Amino acid sequence: MSKKIRILLNILFIFLIFWTLNYWEETSKRDPLLDRIYRLDLSLEWDVDGIGFQNDTLVVKVTYHGLSRNPKNGSLLFIRDGKIVRNVTLLPFDDFGTFDLSKDVIALGTYSIKWLDESTFTFSPFYLIAYSPTGSELWRKEFNVTSLSTAGDLIVARGYVRNGSVVKVFDVRGNELWGLAFGENVATNGKTIAVTEKGKIYLFSREGNLIKTIEPWKGTVGSVELTDDGRLVVTFYSKEGSYLGVYSENGSLLWTKNFSRIRDFAISQNYILVYDGALHILDWSGKVLWDNTRYYPLYPEVGIALGRIAISGDEKFIAYGSSEVSLAINPLFDHDKDGIIDEDDPIPFNNGIFYRALLTIVVGIAAIWVNRRELQKSREEARKKYEEIKNSLDSKL
């Protein structure tokens, strides 16, 4: 084997060592949430105002936030297998939080601008709209929604009226069941309705009977969510910061945890996701299972712009969006950070590192074999020369 081949093998071996180490370093420093398996870019004048999973479809509400006398219409996007399978046209605008979905219905609030003259306008009309899982409109009602929740066969919406607010409870067919003449934020699990008002949380039965009143743990009550078994997840805001609290089904405070500034949260059967400039994944005991704060040295002053967040029903995927829509694998299901769910991996560790390491080992073995062979060949040649010199000297003596 020529000397050139041996030199090339040694150079290639050294290159592969550094190539593999560099990939490992990059992988260990990269936030897995940025390893998107799907991404839809939107311009800065568009915003994701709602995102959620419905069966095998990612449903996204996109609204217009640009400055224009004739604003563009918003959209309700249905994304499946990395493709937009349906795009439903909405009115241009939305208030934060007026989007929710359940297994059988998608509910949202939307509104537009009505110009009264050259310099005066009003926000009108306002609609509460219900869609089927395929995007067909079921019904709409004029209602200026500011908080919305749907589960089971109920849709609960809060709106404001002159000098006050109202809460209305509908069934999925659009029939108004009952209402309240107060309320700030609402939540339902299909069996119980939670309504916040002036720092208190009121729990009602689906028939409208008051079950319990909960005094806030600290500060001002923000968003609320109800689990299927009746546990209540609440955000609180005070001068000391923002907090996430979990109450039992009988209204007892189980635990609280402080965060920098809670911007959104999502719940599933086993996890609570909190976004405050970084993403935190907690279990229902309050233990932090994973967060990506280590990837952002200036957290909490500077983090990552996730926007609205959601987790799939099987808990394997996380979706988020602000001026883009992104879908990533839940890091708890992707320990090796190879962008593949581990339980489905043919190789139970990072495939990128595996193939690089395998190639490095193969080339390394070849380089070592060639070097040993060349060394052995050199020793044999040296031994022959030694024997020739020795024999020549012996013959002269």
From TrEMBL:
SUPFAM superfamilies: Quinoprotein alcohol dehydrogenase-like (SSF50998). It comes from the Archaea. Keywords: Membrane, Transmembrane, Transmembrane helix. The chain crosses the membrane at residues 7-24, 353-370. Residues 165-291 form the Pyrrolo-quinoline quinone repeat domain. InterPro entries: PQQ_rpt_dom, Quinoprotein_ADH-like_sf, WD40/YVTN_repeat-like_dom_sf. The keyword Magnesium does not apply. This is PQQ-binding-like beta-propeller repeat protein. The lineage of its organism: Archaea, Methanobacteriati, Methanobacteriota, Thermococci, Thermococcales.
